[in-house]
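# step 3/5: fold
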Amino acid sequence: MSTASKKLKFKTSAKRRTLHDGSTHISDFDELVISLKADQRFQEYEIDYPKQDIASLSLGQSTLFMIGPKIWSNPRRLKPFINDGSSTAQHSLICCGSESDLENVPEVLHISHSHMLVFPSTLTNLHFLVKDLIRNKDFQQLANLDKQAATETLENVKHVLSISRELNQVRDVNRLLDLILAKAIAVTKSDAGSIYVVEPESEGKEALLVFKICKNSSTILNLSEFKMPINDQSIVGNSVLHAATINIPDLYSLNKDPDKNPYHARHDVSWDEKNNYECHSMLSIPIFDISHDVIGVIQLINRKHGEDPLKSKEDFKNRVTPFADTDVEYGEIVAHQAGIALENAMLTEEKEKLFEGFVDASVKAIEQRDPTTSGHSHRVAKLTLDMAEIINKTPNGIYGSTYFNESQLKEIEYASLLHDFGKLGVREQVLLKAKKLYGWQLENLEERFELIRSRYEIDHLNEVIKYLKTPQMFPPGLGMKHFQSEFKAKVQELDRYFETIMKSNEPSVLEQGNFELLKDIANLSFNDSKTKNRPFLLADELKALSISRGSLTPEEFSEIQSHVTHTYEFLRKIPWGKDLSNVPNIAAKHHEKLDGSGYPNSAEATEIPIQSRIMTISDIFDALTASDRPYKKAVPVERALDIIEMEVKSGKCDPDLFKIFIESKCYRGVL
């Protein structure tokens, strides 16, 4: 006991005055302390008086300090008792003194909400004051606890909402499953967990549970994906069947007879022994889609204290606890958010598969329509994608800052694969025209020349018959030999005409002089059996045969060019979504040139996106080097590069992209 305490105890023999109502009259601080110790009403409090002019009463978590003038008038001695005035302070303060003393109480005591006890007073007044202050402090502490709980709940809600945002930003199913499991483990303070996904029934096959992913903070598990039936023989199966959360406090406490356990739960201890790990508490939470169908299960293992891994048997015994109601609540919230995110991701994956299937079917349709260019779309797509990925890795040059993200690369792939889709809108005979004359035109022309030959032969035979009947009607020296020679000459000339036509029908460059000869042939005519005068060559045949290079007339070439317009009109009607919205524009500009000489719109350089510029080079290269074109031979690689270089020098193709094309040698991938 301190010296001050001894002095106070000594004064207990002093005379104390009692009022007529029986309450003790207190005149100063010493009497106050003596009365506190003696009065029955204060026995429930823990009372201490360590120094002169200081006394404390404690009840539960609350403490009340009473200080006299020697304390509150001395700033240095007062400082430990001053709080910041907040309601979270753990103690209350009563300043004691006479009325004249308390008039000089420092301002800081008013700011800190201290209370005053004016001497003389009574123990009854003090008792009510202490009781009220302690009660108020208890109320404050309860309010603070409620506020703390509300704050904690708010923070948990914010955390869950942040989880929701994170989950809904991921569209890759495997990445999403990994994130879902990580968040579920975190909010429930689990040591391990796994996710199963429901594989719906199809084509007579029953629905299955597919083990997709697991995490364990304490041991390394290398588990491969596997499938299992959905039945009541497993806890996850029961979660699916009953669409319910299953919380098992301790798997090791289960009855050996599964029928005596909730949901027929059982635990294979041999798995634990094999992996040197103990599965005690388990929480299986179903994942629902928007239709409230179960699409998966999150299974969490070992709710634990602390972040350290579970290594020893003592860890599993002392640090693993059952999952509490709050764990279940927050786990179910994560599972709910996971269901929405997972369904969205699966829909995105389904949409991507739909697009992939549509694009693949479209390419097959193009190739079936035009077998001569089979493989062209895939080769152009590979070249264009390879170039785009090389640009992503190119730090310098005009395209050093250009980067194509995952969505843009997919956009390039689809646009490249479908760049010729508009060929479905081009007449098949034009699309497949390998020579200047269509097959049916050449067939008609051959029959016409056979008819001319027959007319020559008939005319020859008529002359011979007429000569044999009336030879005197013919000039001397004009006989059978002359008729035969004349017939032979006409047939030879007809063969020469037909040979010229056949040579001109090839898509190669028209030989010099053939154009005039074709016009001469077209000016010739013959009489058919009805004596109708008919030309050797029809006007459309002459026009086709007079093509100086290639196999298409200007009208046919224009029709071929229109495939780009058809491509754009078709693709723009497809709801590609925001990430792939540029597919139609990229595909529609692969025949545009930087100098404005391209088609279909003679676009300027600034109007041609880089993706289309890359595709232009890829398209030209493959068209030149392809070995499956019936109307031309494949051009050697070096010659093809020279041709593209000429296009670059004439301002038609992008020189920087062509440089990357040459230096990377990416074209080797399609040869």
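# step 4/5: annotate
The longest strand covers residues 294-304.
# step 5/5: archive (pending)
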